[in-house]
Amino acid sequence: MSDNGDDPIVGFESVDELQSHGINAQDITKLKAAGIVTVLGVAQTTRRHLMKIKGLSEAKVEKLKDVVAKLLPPPFQSGTEVAERRQSVVYITTGSKSVDAMLGGGIPTQSITEVFGEYRTGKTQLCHTLCVSTQLPEDQFGASGKVAYIDTEGTFRPDRVKSVADRFGVDATMALDNVLCARAWSSEQQCDLLVELAVRFVEDRTYKLIIVDSIMNLFRQDYSGRGELSERQQKLNQFLARLQKLAEEFNVAVVLTNQVQSDPGANAMFAGASSSKAVGGHILSHASAVRMQLRKGRGDERIAKLQDSPDMPEGEATYVLKSGGWEDPS
Question: Residue 131 and residue 162: Cα distance in Å, rounded?
Answer without folding.
Answer: 10
